[in-house]
Amino acid sequence: MNSEKYPIGLDGDNISFNNVQLKKIGNSSVPTDSTELGKVFEESAPVFEVFKTGDLTALKGGIQYRQIYSAIKSLAIFDKSVDSSLYYYKLAFLRNTTEGAFKIYKRLKTGSIWTLSGYFHLPVNTSATKTVSYNLDSNYSTFHMNISIDWSKIPIGFSQNLEADIDNDDPLMIIKQSCVRYNERFLNKDLDFNNHAGLNLLQAQTRTAALSSRFGKDLFPVFIRYTNRSIDNTYDDNPDAAYVSQVYAAFKYMKITGVDDSLIYKISFLRRNDSGTWSIMLNKKEAGVWSRVLYQSITGLVENAEGVTKFEVSEGSITLTSYIDFNEVPDGTSGWVDGGETNEPAFIINPLCYSKSTGGTSYDQSLNTTDDVEFASINAGAVEISGALPTGTLASPPAGLVVGDYWTDTTDSATHPIIRQKIS
């Protein structure tokens, strides 16, 4: 039988494939050696690659290994703890009960010991017979995982370590290196990277490249790029803190009033629920120097767990109103957002978000001295006139007056004149 002419597993005969005799199982001819089976089932197990020789048709918890591996349809792991190119990663544990779970282990390519790196918990619909996608944060706070799994391939009640000794035993198949990214736990499990960045997770080589493709247009609606400073850094370069990008993306709307709109502004500090306090700092750049214009806190803010929370603070004549999705910033975050109070930031606040006006409709704040300006009415607590009105007396009023013009009458007193208006 010509293995190139007839697809493997359809003819029912024993055939040779790459000089390996295939073992007949039922009416199908499929290889049991993991090297050959890995090639044949490349599409069925798209996120794994062969790691060692073994029998993928062997049973584990009542089902074959190949069923377990082929149940995972897509996988993207973001590991911010290590350089993932130096490590192998494996699926070490899988559970399909009332609570599903995954365990991801890794080991140095030059080492031999596997260590637990990500432990993910998820709800499972025990009647599920289709592929379900999840965005998951590990309880180890170093991983974020996007996974799609076909639960129909995993029997209800299945709960197994895939190796007898998951700390020391190598797996039959490891997770493809292309499915793991270093330092790329993008934003938060509630933020769908694909929707915001418009890129496939597995195709994006680095988060920086992905973000640069959109240049912040959709990801950061309140901010615009100012320098090429990296946004992959964490607060104060603390590896356990939030990423700078998480803060920029958390702001969905902002309006600042009472500031000089000829200057540029940045958010330099953000605190989320650190000892029950939420804080924000606003800085301006004037004459080449960054300085603080607002630093205010709110105690006991009630967050919206499903989306944005209104966050409004004032200092002097300045009011900052924003809608922030705090779900995208780790609880307890507190630190300099982008290098500190006086450093040049990666992004500044979009000038459309701020103005001099403190309310109502904003008009041109600086009127010229040559054109007439007409208002239906003016209500002011005080009016200051920097120029001088025409002066005269009742017997000799100033020349050139037209109806509506005001002039000062010094008939009774030159130091305290009477203001008169020509009405006819």
What does this structure look like?
- There is one protein chain.
- This protein is mainly beta and 424 residues long.
- It has three domains: 31-182, no CATH class; 200-355, no CATH class; 383-424, no CATH class.
- The chain is built from five helices and 29 strands.
- It has a four-stranded mixed β-sheet with strand order 12-13-8-16.
- Strand 10 and strand 11 (115-123) form a beta hairpin.
- Mean pLDDT is 75; it is low at 1-31 and 183-217.
Give a summary of the structure in a few sentences.
By secondary structure, the protein is mostly beta strands. It contains five helices and 29 strands.
Features:
four-stranded antiparallel β-sheet, 424 residues, 5 helices, rod-shaped, 3 domains, mainly beta, 8% helix
